[in-house]
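Might you be able to check the C-alpha cells below? Thank you kindly.
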Amino acid sequence: MERMKDCSSVSALADELGIHRTAPYQWQRKLEHTGKGSVRATSPVRELRKQVRDLKIN
C-alpha cells in the first residue's frame, strides 16, 4: 500500500508485482473497512484530476 501512494500508475505497479491491476484497489478498500484509517493515495496527478473535475462541474 505504501508503494501505491507514491506511484503514478497503479497498473504499472501491478504489472511489476505480477498481480491483476484491480488487486491493489481491493486491498485498499479492505484496509479502509477495517478501520485502520484511509490509505488512499494522493498523488499530484490525482489532485490535478480532481481540480479539473471540480472546474468542469462548476
Summary: Residues 2-57 form one domain. The two ends are 33 Å apart (CA to CA). The CA atoms of residues 7 and 13 lie 7 Å apart. The mean pLDDT is 79.
